[in-house]
Amino acid sequence: MIKSIVLIGSGRVAHHLGHALYNQGLQLVQIVGRNSSTTAQLALELESVAVGLDNLQLMDIHADMYIIAVSDSAIAKVSSTLAQLLPDHALVVHTSGATPLSKIDRHFKYRGVFYPLQTFSRDQVVDFREVPICLDTASTGHHRAELERLAQSLSRYVVWLNEEQRAVLHLAAVFVNNFTNHLFGVASQILASKAINFSLLKPLIAETIRKLDNLPPPEAQTGPAVRNDQSTIEKHQELLQQIHPEFLDIYQLLTRSIQDLHSNDQNA
Amino acid sequence: MIKSIVLIGSGRVAHHLGHALYNQGLQLVQIVGRNSSTTAQLALELESVAVGLDNLQLMDIHADMYIIAVSDSAIAKVSSTLAQLLPDHALVVHTSGATPLSKIDRHFKYRGVFYPLQTFSRDQVVDFREVPICLDTASTGHHRAELERLAQSLSRYVVWLNEEQRAVLHLAAVFVNNFTNHLFGVASQILASKAINFSLLKPLIAETIRKLDNLPPPEAQTGPAVRNDQSTIEKHQELLQQIHPEFLDIYQLLTRSIQDLHSNDQNA
Questions:
Q1: Are A190 and B173 a contacting pair at CB < 8 A?
Q2: B179 in contact with A at a CB cutoff of 8 Å?
Q3: Is the ipTM of this complex over 0.90?
C-alpha cells in the first residue's frame, strides 16, 4: 500500500495534488522544486521537507511513490536524474495529460501516469473528489492495483486511459476549458465597449452548461448560425468591425463551423 | 398596471415567457401564432385562446400589452399588421435582442423591447427569476414604470439597455452560448474518436465556469497557448490532423488569439 510520497514540483498541480494527498493522510516525505519560495511554502503546508531541484542528489530518501509534477518539457530530464538515484523498482509517475508514459526513464519498471483532469489556480480551492484522475502504467500486477487504490482515495472519478486516449482527452480539454475561457474573455471585452457588466451573461453561461446534462451539444445549439439567420450574422459582423475587428475572424470561423456541422439537419 | 396580455408567437421564447407571465397571474387573453399545433398547445397550457397568425384581424381584443415574440425577420410585418388593428396608445413590445426598437411600427407611441437573455429549449424548464430581462422603450412616463414593474415580477435581473448596448449584449451572448456550445460539440466529437465519454469533461467545464466568480477570464486562462508551450501545440495539431482535420483551423485561430491577447503579459 502506498503510504509515503516524494512530490517533485511546486506549481499548481503539485500544490493541489499535494494537498489532496496530505488530506488523505499520505506522508509527503519531500517536496522537491526549482522555485525555492513556493517549494518551501508547500513543504510547510504539507509538513514536509523542501529540497531544491538543483540538489536532487539530496533526494536519496525512500518513498512508496515518486510523483513528477513539473512542466511537461522538464519531465524527461527530471526522470533521468531520478534514474541515477533510485532503484529500478521505484514507482515513478508523472501528472501530465500531454506527455507519453515513455518520457519517464526506462530504468524504472513501474512507470505510470497520474493525470488529474482539471484547471488549477493557485488561490482557488478545488474539491479533489470531483477531479477525474486518469491512470496509465506499463506494469501489471500489484503496482497497478495500488495506483488505482490511491487514485480512488482522492477522487470519485478514476479511469484507465491508454496513451492515445489521454492525448485525445487533453486536446478536448483545451477546447472546453482554454478556448471556452478565451471566448468568455472576448465577450467581456465586447461588453466593456458599451459599459455593460459581464455578470449579466452569467445566467446564460450557467444554462449553457446545465443543458449538457440533458442534451448532446449539437441538439442544444441555438443562435443565428444554426438557424442560418444571415441578417443577424451580418449585423453582428458590422458591429464587430466597429468595436473589435480583431475578433471578426473568430466569429466568422465558428459561425461557418456550426453551419457545416448542421448543414444536414432538417430541424435546425 | 399591466394585467392582460396578447402574446404573438408560439416558439421557444413565447413558450417560456408565456409560462412565466401565466405563473405570475397575468391573464393571457390570446396566443397568436403561425404554427397551429404549438399555438393551440400553448393556449391550452396558459388557459388562453389560440388565434392563427393569418387571422390576425380576429385579434381585435383589448389587452394592456402586446408581446411580439416571433422570429426577428417577422417582427416588422407583424407589427405593421397590428398597427391596422390597434389604437396608437397600445403598449407593443418585441422580445428580440438583435432587433431595433424602430422595427415596431411607428403608429405605436409606446413601443418597447422586453428581451429575456437566455437560451431556451422547448423541453427544458427555466427558472425565469434567473433570466435577465433587458428593457428599452421610446416612451417616458408611466408606461416605462409599468414595463419595469412587470419585468421585476418575473426576474431578479432587470436592466435598461439602449439600442447599441442591446446589440452588443446579443453579440456577446453568441460568443458565450452559441460558440461555447459548439466547442463542447467539437470536444465531444474528438473524444468519440477514441471512445471516451464526454461526461469525463464535465468537472472541468464546471470549474471553468466557477472560476468566473473569482477571476476575470484573462486571469483564469491556462493551457498551452497562454504559456506558449509550442511542443504541446504542435502535438495537438498533429493529432487533430489525424482524427478531425476540419477543426484544425479553429484550434489554430483560437490559440493565436489567446497568444495575441496575452503577448504583453509578464506572468502568463
A1: no
A2: yes
A3: yes
A174, A211, A217 ranked by CB distance to B188: nearest: A217
B193: contact with A, CB 8 A cutoff: yes
Chain A residues lying within 8 Å of B35, measured CB to CB: none
* pLDDT for residue A58: 63
Among A132, A178, A239, the residue with its CB nearest the CB of B167 is A239
Which of B133, B174, B234, B251 to mutate to probe the A interface, most A CBs <10 Å?
A: B174
B3 — contact with chain A (CB < 8 Å)?
Answer: no
| pLDDT per position as a tens digit, A161-184 | 999 999 999 999 999 999 999 999
With the C-alpha atoms ordered A111, A115, A121, A127, is the resulting torsion angle positive or negative? negative
Which CATH code is given to the segment(s) B4-161?
3.40.50.720
Write a three-state SS string for A195-253.
CCCHHHHHHHHHHHHHHHHCCCHHHHCCCCCCCCCHHHHHHHHHHHHHHCHHHHHHHHH
Q: What is the pLDDT of residue B266?
A: 45
Distance of CA B140 to the CA centre of its chain: 26
Cβ separation A243–B168 shorter than 8 A: yes
What residues form DSSP beta bridges with B30? B6
Inspect the interface and report whether the beta carbons of B236 and A177 lie closer than 8 Å: no
- What order of strands is seen across the sheet that includes strand A4-8? A50-52, A27-33, A4-8, A65-68, A91-94, A110-116, A133-137, A158-160
What are the residue ranges spanned by the domains of chain B? 4-161, 167-262
Convert the pLDDT of each residue in A37-87 to its tens digit: 999 999 999 999 998 887 766 665 789 999 999 999 999 999 999 998 899
**pLDDT tens-digit profile, chain B (268 residues):** 899 999 999 999 999 999 999 999 999 999 999 999 999 999 999 999 999 887 766 665 789 999 999 999 999 999 999 998 899 999 999 999 999 999 999 999 999 999 999 988 878 888 999 999 999 998 878 889 999 999 999 999 999 999 999 999 999 999 999 999 999 999 999 999 999 999 999 999 999 999 999 899 999 999 999 999 999 999 999 999 999 999 999 999 999 999 999 886 644 3
This prediction's pTM: 0.91
Interface contacts A/B by beta carbons within 8 Å: 300
Cα A25 from chain centroid? Answer: 24
Burial class (CB in 10 A: 0-12, 13-18, 19+), A65: buried
Q: Which CATH class is domain A167-262?
A: mainly alpha
Max CA pair span of chain A: 69
Distance from A245 to chain B by nearest Cα, in Å? Answer: 12
CA A249 vs CA A241, B92, B187, B254: distances in Å: 10, 37, 21, 10
| Cβ pair B214:A124 closer than 8 A | yes
Q: Report CB contact under 8 Å: A200, B260.
A: no
Domains A4-161 and A167-262 share a fold: no
Q: How far is B212 from chain A (nearest CA, A)?
A: 9
